[in-house]
Amino acid sequence: MQSAARNRILFEGFLKFLILVLEMKENIDIFKIKSNNIPPQKGRILIAEPFLHGDYFSRSVVFLVAYSEKGAVGFILNKKIEYQLHDVFPDFPEFKGNIFIGGPVSADSIFYVHKLGGKLPGSINVLGDLYWGGDFEVLKNLITVGAVNTEDIHFFLGYSGWDAGQLEDEIKEDSWLVTDVDENLIMQEANNSSWADFVKKAGNRYSIWENYPENPSFN
């Protein structure tokens, strides 16, 4: 009898342990990205999964401005810095535009996404009325004569770049969620907390991410 009782207790303990393991796995899977089958392409955004770490990409939203079999280029939309361009580049005319950390590549260079279109020679269309790049000297002249509004352009220090196949590998590793985006959202003044706003727009499937702590060990 004692042996049967002991075996029953052990069996019940094993069942409780098994249930606990399954619950833990379910909780982990809630936060794990499941592919939405949207491939990366120019004009789409990448939303970093909640556990992606690093000074640049933690809780980041990246706007892809170029994508091909050779690689990808994008700019982080929600890492704003509190400087003016002429503080960073003294020969640049005074202009109260938004400046963001665009990524780890060429971090000492300035890049820009804008709605100037044909006003800026060499601009490359990305999405709707959004362009990137263009003649830097012409841009400075346009700003000097007051032909550019702050809501028409965002500046980025550095950019985010991926070699051929690198971004695809990171998506397979569940580091990024790819989604379409309303072009009007790109030119809004995003900040660190905007990551949750973009997650919300990605759909209810990811809503649990919004309030998840950036560092779970602090909870």
Could you explain the architecture of this structure?
The chain has helices at 2-31, 85-88, 136-144, 166-172, 183-186, 194-201; strands at residues 45-48, 61-68, 71-76, 80-81, 98-101, 105-114, 124-127, 130-132, 153-163, 176-179. With 219 residues, it is α+β, with helices and mostly antiparallel strands. Strands 1, 2, 3, 4, 5, 6, 7, 8, 9 and 10 form a 10-stranded mixed beta sheet that branches. The longest helix is centred in the first third of the chain and has 30 residues, at 2-31. It is elongated, with a radius of gyration of 23 Å.
Highlighted features:
10 strands, alpha+beta, 219 residues, ten-stranded mixed β-sheet, elongated, VC0467-like, single chain
How is the secondary structure organized here?
Layout lengths: L1 H30 L13 E4 L12 E8 L2 E6 L3 E2 L3 H4 L9 E4 L3 E10 L9 E4 L2 E3 L3 H9 L8 E11 L2 H7 L3 E4 L3 H4 L7 H8 L18
Parallel strand pairs: 5-9
Antiparallel strand pairs: 1-2, 1-10, 2-3, 3-9, 4-5, 6-8, 6-9, 7-8
Query: Mean pLDDT, nearest integer?
Result: 84
Q: What would the CATH topology be? A: VC0467-like
How many structurally independent domains? 1
What is the end-to-end distance? Answer: 46 Å
**Using only CA atoms, what is the Rg?**
23 Å
Q: Please state the structural category.
A: alpha+beta
Specify the biggest β-sheet: 10 strands, mixed
